[in-house]
From TrEMBL:
<feature type="domain" description="Sushi">
    <location>
        <begin position="144"/>
        <end position="206"/>
    </location>
</feature>
<feature type="signal peptide">
    <location>
        <begin position="1"/>
        <end position="23"/>
    </location>
</feature>
<keyword id="KW-0964">Secreted</keyword>
<dbReference type="Pfam" id="PF09014">
    <property type="entry name" value="Sushi_2"/>
</dbReference>
<dbReference type="InterPro" id="IPR035976">
    <property type="entry name" value="Sushi/SCR/CCP_sf"/>
</dbReference>
<feature type="domain" description="Sushi">
    <location>
        <begin position="207"/>
        <end position="266"/>
    </location>
</feature>
<keyword id="KW-0325">Glycoprotein</keyword>
<feature type="domain" description="Sushi">
    <location>
        <begin position="25"/>
        <end position="85"/>
    </location>
</feature>
<dbReference type="GO" id="GO:0005576">
    <property type="term" value="C:extracellular region"/>
</dbReference>
<feature type="disulfide bond">
    <location>
        <begin position="209"/>
        <end position="252"/>
    </location>
</feature>
<keyword id="KW-0768">Sushi</keyword>
<keyword id="KW-1015">Disulfide bond</keyword>
<dbReference type="Pfam" id="PF00084">
    <property type="entry name" value="Sushi"/>
</dbReference>
<keyword id="KW-0732">Signal</keyword>
<feature type="disulfide bond">
    <location>
        <begin position="27"/>
        <end position="70"/>
    </location>
</feature>
<comment type="function">
    <text>Binds to various kinds of negatively charged substances such as heparin, phospholipids, and dextran sulfate. May prevent activation of the intrinsic blood coagulation cascade by binding to phospholipids on the surface of damaged cells.</text>
</comment>
<feature type="disulfide bond">
    <location>
        <begin position="114"/>
        <end position="141"/>
    </location>
</feature>
Amino acid sequence: MRPAFQWLLLLICQACLLNPATTENVCPRPLPEDNTELIGGQLFFEPGTEVTLSCSQGYSHSGGSRKITCKKNGEWTERFLQCSPKRCSVPESPQNGKAEFDKIVYKSVITFNCNNGYNLVGANSSTCLHTGQWSKPTPQCEPVLCGLPDIPPNAKIVYDKQFKGYTVPFGFGGKYECFPPMAAIGEQRAMCTEDGTWTDPPECILVTCPEPSGIDNGFLSFAESRKYGYKEKVKYGCTHPYILDGLAEVECQETGSWSKIPTCKAPCTVGIERGRIVYRGSKMWIADFKPNQVTHSEQVTVYCLDQEKDCGYPVNMRCDNGEMPIPACYTEPDAYSIRPGTFPSEIKQCS
C-alpha cells in the first residue's frame, strides 16, 4: 500500500471520530511532498498551528523556510522548503578498469567494468546512500592468468622478464627462438592473451643457404664449399687496394638466402696536375700528394675561382669505385711556377 494512501486512510478514520463542528476547521497532517515531510505522529492540527517541516531521508536543506501554518479553512500555507539529494564522493575507477555513472547523488548507481584481460573482484555496482556514502567499495581488476606456454620442438622461449611460479598475468610475453639450423616459421612473439591462453607458437623447420658466392677483387675467409644452416656466418675481404663496401660478415637468413653480400670498390686518383688539394684535413700541393690514390668514398677538396668577386672557394669531390670527376668550376692553373700566389687556393677566400 502506498504511503500517501495510508496517510489519507488514517485521516479519514480519525475524522470519523470527531464531531462535525471540529472537522470543518482543522488541518489534516501534511503529506510528504517534494522530498519534504513532517516528523511526528499527530494527524490533525488546529487553525493557527505552525509546524516545522524536515527534508526526507537522503535529502538536505537547500533553501526556503521550513515553517507552514494551518489556516482557518483547514488548509496549510504554501510550502517553500527546498530539499536537494545528498551528494556522494566522486567514485574512483579501479586500476585497469573504469567506473560509469551519470550522477553522484542519493539513489544514483555507478557500475564498474574491467579492461579486457582483467577480471572484476568485488561488486560490479554501488549505490549512493542517504548517508552520502557508497554502498560498496571500489572493486579490484585482477589480470587474467595463463599457465606456462607450450614450447615447440627444437625451440626455446626468452621471456621479457623473470617471474616466479607457474602462472603469468595477461600481457606477459616473450619471444620464441629456434635452435639453429632450425628457423621459426610463423609469429615468433609469445603473449598471454585476455582469455587466459597463449598465442600460437611458430614451427621450427630446417633452413639452409647455398654455398656463398665469391666477389670481384675479393675473397671469402675460411669458408667451406658446402651449404650453410640458418644463422651460420661467413666473412668477406678485399685484395689491396680495394676496400669493402658493406658488412664483412654475412649470415644465412630464415628465408634460405644470405644477408646482403658486400662488394669491393676500387680506389681513385686525383686527376689534376697543378694546384692545391685538401686531403684528410691537410692542405698540400698535388705534386706532393704521393701516392696519388684515395680509397672508395673518400673525399678530396680542390679550389675554384669566383671571377666576379675575385676570390677562391673550396669544392669537394668524392671517390666512387674508381671514379672521381673533377668539378666543372675547377680550372687548371697555367702559371704554376711563375705566379703561384694567384691560385684560387692562395687568394682571398669567398665568404
